[in-house]
């Protein structure tokens, strides 16, 4: 008991801690839900997209994904933080395109462009039959999509879930990549067990904003990298594959339907 203040005001430090925690929370809330974001959420509610945000499924540096609910059931709502540098890890080609789309380097406008892009890609994937959340709408930095989960609980990422039947997963992932490349004519560019959810025993592709069309100069390199991530992951599960073999299976001409 060396500090007399602590003896006289035993709860003072605690209260200070509480206040710090509150402050942190407020800071988080401010970063996420700045005025513009709140207005956009309110507009989406008015549109009837959902009635309330229930809780965060995950929050990170670049944004957060929330479960929302409404008359139509659950929705997943992805909020990109405006006040953050989501573009730090972005490959140069994507940044360049985004600047062009946003006609300038205005940060907020670039984030809005990014959100719209994720919506557009999801539409294209869904139309091509690639398993992904169906997109329902977007406004500014907010994307509304199908909630992937069971009984209100979000599906886990492939990374976090034990796989009972790795061979079946191999076939599923191969089909997913083939649909992506041959039907949607896109390369994801950030494929990994972190960006795939495991729902009802099957993979569902998420986090698609950085995807590029197959004719893009960077596409082939990105595809090779994506495939390498999958092949390594499958090898760890005991599947007899390799980046080269997975690639060869993807490259085989799809059977005519
Ligand atoms: N449609 C959805 N339904 C259920 N959960 C989802 C959905 N979309 C995303 N999630 C959850 O939110 C997490 C983050 O989503 P996503 O990967 O799209 O965002 P991110 O900003 O790229 O995050 P990270 O940087 O962690 O990859 C996912 O790992 C998943 O747990
Ligand atoms: Mg992600």
Describe this structure in words.
The protein has helices spanning 4-8, 12-32, 35-47, 92-101, 107-127, 166-183, 219-236, 243-251, and strands at 52-59, 63-70, 73-80, 135-139, 142-146, 149-150, 153-154, 186-187, 196-199, 202-205, 212-213. With 257 residues, it is of the alpha+beta class. The strands form 4 sheets. It has a 5-stranded antiparallel beta sheet with strand order 1-2-3-5-4, sandwiched between helices. A two-stranded antiparallel ribbon has the order 6-7. The longest helix has 21 residues, at 12-32. Magnesium ion binds at residues 194-195, 207.
CATH class of the domain at 155-251: Mainly Alpha
What is the count of DSSP helices, taking H or I runs of 4+ residues? 8
Beta-strand portion reads 15-25%
CATH topology of the domain at 155-251: Transferase(Phosphotransferase), domain 1
Low-confidence stretches: none
Strand order of the largest sheet: 1-2-3-5-4
Radius of gyration, CA atoms, in whole angstroms:
22 Å
Bound molecules: adenosine-5'-triphosphate, magnesium ion
Distance between the termini: 80 Å
Q: How many E-type strands? A: 11
Named CATH architecture of the domain at 155-251: Orthogonal Bundle
Let me know the largest β-sheet: 5 strands, antiparallel
């Amino acid at each position: 008991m060396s500090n007399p203040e602590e003896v006289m005001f035993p709860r003072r430090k605690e209260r200070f801690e509480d206040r710090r925690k509150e402050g942190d929370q407020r800071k988080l809330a401010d970063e996420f839900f700045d005025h513009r974001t709140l207005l956009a959420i309110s507009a989406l509610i008015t549109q009837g997209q959902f009635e309330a945000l229930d809780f965060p499924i995950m929050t990170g540096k670049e944004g957060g994904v929330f479960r929302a609910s409404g008359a139509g059931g659950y929705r997943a709502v992805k909020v990109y933080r405006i006040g953050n540098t989501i573009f730090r890890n972005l490959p140069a080609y994507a940044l360049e395109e985004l600047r062009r789309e946003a006609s300038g380097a205005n940060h907020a406008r670039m984030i809005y462009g990014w959100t719209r892009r994720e919506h557009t890609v999801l539409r294209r994937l869904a139309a091509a039959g690639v398993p992904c959340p169906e997109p329902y709408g977007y406004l500014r930095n907010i994307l509304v999509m199908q909630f992937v989960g069971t009984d209100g609980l979000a599906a886990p990422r492939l990374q976090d879930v034990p796989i009972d039947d790795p061979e079946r997963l191999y076939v599923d992932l191969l089909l997913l990549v083939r649909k992506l490349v041959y039907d949607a004519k896109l390369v994801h560019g950030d494929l990994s067990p972190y960006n795939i959810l495991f729902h009802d025993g099957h993979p569902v592709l998420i986090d698609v904003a950085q995807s590029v069309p197959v004719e893009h100069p960077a596409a082939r390199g990105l595809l090779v990298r994506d495939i390498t991530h999958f092949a390594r992951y499958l090898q760890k599960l005991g599947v007899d594959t390799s980046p080269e073999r997975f690639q060869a299976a993807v490259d085989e001409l799809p059977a005519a339907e």
